[in-house]
């Protein structure tokens, strides 16, 4: 029977933490999961271990971006607003703008940095500006996750840097991808960016699927030793759009090839050939 992502029941918040936190502590090595969803209907086309609790790594920035887009929409942010890079933000490795503590970046630069380069200092600056601290922002993120039906996700920081408490599932990441597309269709187009220019320097992104697959629209990749290689991405062929998630692949190439196989199988053509 076909399931639909936005029709699955939510868990009670109290029982959620009791259920998830022990599971997080038990994760010893990268697990593997995938899911493919029809973006129009929410129908789950294929899934494997999709509700297994795993680590999101930099897929976390999808929620940081969701809350950034929400702040732009509500007027709490504007695109040219300056964000101060704190010492805490400047200390985030490995990917960062590295402008130095006390200096600033624009909200636009922060967004593009997270989308293209997965800049941790930008994610932290957004969090500290909107919530005062990473911890408080993590609570905002988890609360928003619950609103979006992400029943098994807990966020503790805006970047996805390792924290055993920060966990998710392929199902929940697909829900977040669908929510970004549904709630911010204009901003969603930024995920297709293959590169960016930052202060006269040109940079290329990390998402090989975006380059290799016709119709790919891109969202986010991620990696830590604990998570393995993760990706959430979308692609369109004709009038059909699919959103896919792969968690815990063995390499960047493996996650790309697995995603290509999933999309090819369900588009019904060898679109990547």
TrEMBL record:
Keyword Protease: yes
Signal peptide start and end residues: 1-25
Domain of life: Bacteria
Gene3D superfamilies: DD-peptidase/beta-lactamase superfamily
Keywords of the record: Carboxypeptidase, Cell shape, Cell wall biogenesis/degradation, Hydrolase, Peptidoglycan synthesis, Protease, Signal
Pfam families in the cross-refs: Peptidase_S11
Peptidase S11 D-alanyl-D-alanine carboxypeptidase A N-terminal domain sequence ranges: 31-250
MF annotations from Gene Ontology: carboxypeptidase activity
InterPro entries the UniProt entry points to: Beta-lactam/transpept-like, Peptidase_S11, Peptidase_S11_N
Record SUPFAM superfamilies: beta-lactamase/transpeptidase-like (SSF56601)
Similarity section: Belongs to the peptidase S11 family.
Name this polypeptide is given: D-alanyl-D-alanine carboxypeptidase
Organism in which the protein naturally occurs: Peteryoungia algae
